[in-house]
Predict the 3D structure of the following.
Amino acid sequence: MDKKITRKEFLVTAGVVGSTFIFGSSIITSCKKKEETQEVQETKEQAQTETPKCDDLSGLTPEDINQRKQLQYTDNSPKPDQTCSNCALFVPPENNTPCGKCNLVKGPISPNGWCTSWVQKG
Ligand code: SF4
């Protein structure tokens, strides 16, 4: 069993082993990237579907708070096709804050919110 390997056989074998290693590594790397991409996508989707809590009413007067109640403002719209984000009176959030404002209702307003004064954005 004292077989000598020719230089050509050695190079061919080394090439096959090397190619297999590189191919396998690229598949593993590709799978990991795909998993990471899916995780990032899921996190983004979760963030988009979560309703921000816009209930800090500390700067409002009792009249402002009463108006929110009278107009039945809620952070989570009961009507899927009517949300603050598609209301003409909504002012979108700025500076990466979760809550926007409203030209009618005082205080923080959720893009997913709603009140009885909802008006279709033009
Ligand atoms: S009027 Fe009502 S529905 Fe429209 S943005 Fe203001 S709180 Fe939201």
User: Anything to note?
Assistant: Residues 73, 84, 87, 89-90, 102, 104-105, 109, 113-115, 117-118 surround iron/sulfur cluster (CB under 6 Å). DSSP finds two helices and two strands in the chain. The beta strands are 90-91, 101-102. Residues 7-49 form the longest helix (43 residues).
